[in-house]
Specification:
The chain is of the alpha/beta class. The protein folds into 2 domains: 6-74, Ribosomal protein L30/S12 (60s Ribosomal Protein L30, Chain: A, 2-Layer Sandwich), CATH 3.30.1330.30; 82-244, Alpha/beta knot (3-Layer(aba) Sandwich). It is 35% helix and 20% strand. The chain is built from 9 helices and 10 strands. The chain has helices at residues 10-18, 35-43, 56-62, 82-92, 107-119, 137-142, 158-167, 205-208, 228-244, and strands at 6-8, 23-29, 51-54, 70-74, 97-102, 124-128, 152-155, 171-175, 192-197, 213-215. A 6-stranded parallel β-sheet has the order 7-6-5-9-8-10, sandwiched between helices. The protein has a 4-stranded mixed β-sheet with strand order 1-4-2-3. Helix 5 packs parallel to helix 9. The chain is elongated, with a radius of gyration of 19 Å. The N and C termini lie far apart (49 Å).
Length: 245
């Protein structure tokens, strides 16, 4: 069955950009050239698009047809403007809750996190322009439709989002094992921005050092780590528990 979230061909992708479609990611064949490709490069020059150069084999697996070296994934949801969203939330919430995802790259983890975030009253989810999982049909399905109820903002850099939240009076707490502080000892009743890290490497060092505080989950098993969507659920439900009182 044809995936309606995928478009391919140089002209088709360029027209999608011109028409303002919400594009999650663009895949470009390594070594491609020509005047049309140069025009595409000019469109991508402002840095607001997530794209990567890949072997032709990857493009051939993604689509059946003449992709002309370019394939794009269209997001089923429109991303919100970050600063406008923060301003709106601050106007309407005394203790807002923002969730920052530092390069979560599995689409099902992303969907599961969105589902839990919606259930726990997260006001907005913030992801980086590059390095974040695309929003696919699997993401939508795993989120059980919650993706349409929670604002999702893309920012050029998570670090800039942290600075902005902090300057807006929001305490940023990083979920990290690199601390002795347990999440149960933190005050989540105040305005909070919670950072969750990548499935493998966790929160990047440059992002982690900007957090106001760090908190970890207690661990007893031999493995010593949880799936990020499960860990995120534990953190968000502690926030919800504290805010019920």
């Amino acid at each position: 069955m044809k995936d309606s979230s995928i478009i391919f061909g140089l002209r088709a992708v360029m027209e999608a950009i011109k028409s303002g479609k919400t594009i999650d990611k663009i895949f470009i064949q390594k070594g491609i050239g020509g005047s049309l490709y140069q025009e595409l490069q000019q469109q991508l020059g402002d840095g607001s698009y997530n794209f990567s150069f890949v072997p032709i084999e990857k493009l051939n697996k993604m689509v059946k047809g003449n992709h002309q070296g370019v394939v794009a994934k269209i997001s089923p949801v429109a991303f919100r403007d970050f600063e406008e969203t923060v301003a709106s939330v601050l106007e309407n919430q005394a203790a807002p809750l923002f969730l920052l995802l530092d390069e979560i790259d599995d689409v099902r983890n992303f969907g599961a996190i969105i589902r839990t975030a919606e259930c726990c009253g997260v006001d907005a989810i913030i992801v980086p322009q590059k390095g974040s999982a695309p929003i696919t049909a699997d993401t939508v399905k795993t989120s059980a439709g919650a993706i349409f109820n929670v604002p999702i903002c893309k920012v050029n850099h998570i670090k800039d989002a942290i600075y902005y939240l902090q300057s807006s009076g929001i305490k940023v707490i990083a979920a990290s094992e690199k601390t002795e502080d347990l999440l149960y000892d933190k005050d989540f009743t105040q305005p909070i921005g919670l950072i969750m890290g990548n499935e493998g490497k966790g929160i990047s060092h440059s992002v982690l050092k900007l957090a106001d505080e760090r908190a970890k989950l207690p661990m007893k098993g031999a493995i010593g780590s949880l799936n990020v969507s499960v860990a995120c659920g534990a953190f968000l439900y502690e926030v919800l528990r504290q805010r019920q009182h």
